[in-house]
Design goal:
Length: 255
């Protein structure tokens, strides 16, 4: 419970104490949006690393060499935990936003920081508004800003399973002309969701797969791109799970 309380205190303190920084970021963005993007990324990256440290999470990262370094990409991952964003954000080399649910707009300050790092807010119940968000995502990747999306549409609440990947999620990569980078996340729910409301030490593995260039796929795979990428992530997930007993032992040693 102590870790949970410390994380909550840190998050609330950060949001309140960063109000002047948000103002400065807004002023900087008026004249130099690129500088604002870089500084916001640095601030949020620092905050997420602090949360990772406070929670006692050990992160193992694989396959970063697969991330295209010269252009934007669409990062696609499975989703089990709020910590998926906290852990993955600092791993992206360039400016990267997330496709988030529109309900996040309820939270002042948090939504402002999310906008600063190019997050977009998706209305999952309104097809027309959802399409507008996807088109904004296309504009972002065309301008060089990568996007990260969890195509299951919500956090999957059952370990070792995958909800269907929504095909519309991949329109950002298709229309934007950028590669899809599969991102497999293993054991992130071991931090929090598996034992609410406790936060416990856990070892999490994030593995980036080889980029998928949609134009190089045959028509069949293009039509079922969601299922194809989900299959890649699921295959990697269970390969990693074979090693997880050793990883759990390493994580247990941290307690």
């Amino acid at each position: 419970m102590i870790r949970f309380i410390l994380v909550v205190i840190f998050v609330l303190s950060f949001l309140i104490l960063s109000i002047p920084i948000l103002l400065v970021e807004w002023l900087v963005g008026k004249k130099n949006p690129v500088l604002r993007d870089r500084s916001s990324k640095a601030v949020i990256g620092w905050a997420f690393r602090c949360i990772t440290f406070i929670s006692g999470t050990k992160l193992i990262v694989r396959g970063q060499e697969h991330i295209p370094g010269d252009n934007a990409a669409l990062f696609v991952g499975n989703h089990r935990s709020y910590f998926d964003i906290v852990l993955s954000y600092s791993l992206f080399p360039g400016i990267t936003g997330y496709i988030a649910k529109k309900e996040m707009l309820r939270y002042p300050l948090l939504r402002d920081w999310m906008r600063n790092i190019h997050c977009l807010f998706l209305d999952r119940d309104n097809i027309k508004e959802g399409l507008k968000t996807i088109l904004k995502g296309v504009e972002e990747v065309k301008s060089g800003v990568s996007m990260c999306i969890f195509p299951e549409g919500t956090r999957n609440k059952v370990n070792d399973t995958f909800l269907p990947f929504r095909e519309g999620s991949f329109k950002i990569a298709e229309k934007g002309g950028v590669p899809v980078v599969p991102m497999t996340i293993v054991n992130s729910a071991g931090i929090f969701e598996d034992h609410l409301p406790l936060i416990r030490r856990a070892t999490v593995i994030i593995e980036f797969g080889e980029p998928i260039y949609i134009n190089d796929l045959d028509k069949g795979l293009k039509k079922s791109l969601g299922a194809h990428v989900s299959g890649i992530i699921a295959e990697n997930y269970f390969k990693i799970k074979e090693e997880l007993p050793e990883v759990r032992s390493a994580g247990a040693a941290l307690r």
